[in-house]
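Quick look at the format.
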Amino acid sequence: MPVKSGFLAYHRTGGDLPPLVLSHGLTDNGLCWTRLAAALEAEFDIVMLDARGHGDSSRISTAASCDPAQDIADAVAGLGLQAPIVMGHSVGARATAAYANRHPGEVAKVILEDPPLLPLASAEEVETRDRKFRAQVARFQSMTEAEIYAGGQATSPSWSPEDFPAWAAAKRQVDPEAMPTYTQPWQSEIDRIAVPTLLIHGEPALGSLVSASAAAEALALNPNIRAVQIAGASHNVRRENFPDYLAAVRAFLGVASSA
């Protein structure tokens, strides 16, 4: 679909059902939500976006041209969605939060899967991080999809086989400029969300980007937020403990647990 300065690709399950918009994490694509979409498509019309610089969406011309929250807003408007549920993982969760924060009351519910609730980085830290990210992207693009797939299985043996095909394909689609640079603290992206919001995160000791203190601060900052920690999960919560993750999501959305 056309958006400002480009286009966004998406996949949609369809049906006359409440809309649920999913925004993926860094180096993923929309189809990385396939397992969750399959579990929820009977209850929701699910839209899986390819973020700018990922999947089949537009590349990133300049950092200034990339506003992931605005891209979500443009996608919601372009698809004619009314009061969607919005959900994201990692940087997609940050974008989702920022979108909901800018549009209070225009979404039904919000789910944030392990957003990076981290202090702003210094200019030197940003430069180092971006350089490492570009090198990582170059490494992915020098590999075959099969090599990436095999490497993922070796490093993440607890993931379901369903998770790897889209994950591996996505790695070769990433724009080297896709690493976001945050100029506003995360607190300013959640303080005005006006609807029920679920912060679902893993264990910091395992690699979650939501510390206990950050989760507590989020809850204190906005009474619409509740938090759930999923045992045994790190940053990729749904991939590392899908049953408990899905149960928490279903409970929050008010849909019956699958048999």
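Next, a different chain entirely:
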Amino acid sequence: MPKTREWFLITMRRFRERSTTTPVGNNHYTTVGQLVPITTVMLEVPGVKLEYL
């Protein structure tokens, strides 16, 4: 995870930002993040492995 986080902080501007809302009672909160294809992470971050559950 630390290698992936370090890579992401350097490259995050390449990826589209998206947001979603979650209802909480009479209000909601908004979560914001970037869409990062798993294939990009696997190709660019050494040591990343894909595990199926």
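The CA atoms of residues 20 and 26 lie 16 Å apart.

See the schema section for token definitions.
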